[in-house]
Amino acid sequence: MKKLDIFIVGVGGQGVLTIGDIIAMAMGEKNYITSFYPTKGMAQRGGFVKAQLRIGEGLGPNIPLKGADVIISMERSESLKAAPYIHDKTKFIIYGHTWFPTGVMLGKDNYPAKEAVVDALAGAGAQVVYLDEEDLPLYEGAPMAENIYLLGGVVATGALEEFVSIADIAEAIANKWPKGAERNLASFYAGVEAAKKLLA
Q1: Of 19, 43, 107, 191, whose CB neighbour count within 10 A is largest?
Q2: 103: buried, middle or exposed (CB in 10 Å: 19+, 13-18, 0-12)?
Q3: Which residues pair with 139 in a beta bridge?
Q4: pTM for the full model?
């Protein structure tokens, strides 16, 4: 039986867990056995958030080290916390948001540069797609939904294509927010196009 392990990281307030919710919804509609394990930790805004989404039969709650097929990160620095889960075919999709912890703001710690993060993850074997925060488009004058934009980038890589299509994820988004479907779908398809350009 096919399986897929997805590891998601970010910080509180970014809608990290919503990404997992939507993927799980789409997988469920296709009758795949899907287990979603979110971990909020210190759930305040800016605190580390992770989730493990496992698709397949007979899988426990924890993705093993070097076992993630797909890693999704909503924050540049937090991406490095997922590095131990990379194997040589992992697709790693990052939204380059920066959230400076207290140590960085006080000048005690350094915040990693984009190049350093990408090089570290690629060096561990991942296929990295990095969506820059500065490139986030606007929708009716306001920034698009960052997490849904990133989700578009994920599906554009083909990371989920053996299980669900772009249309399946779009349907899950529309079902989750019927009243906000237009804005969220615009964010989603913008992410799809942005990642396709990077992969071209």
Answers
A1: 191
A2: exposed
A3: 142
A4: 0.92
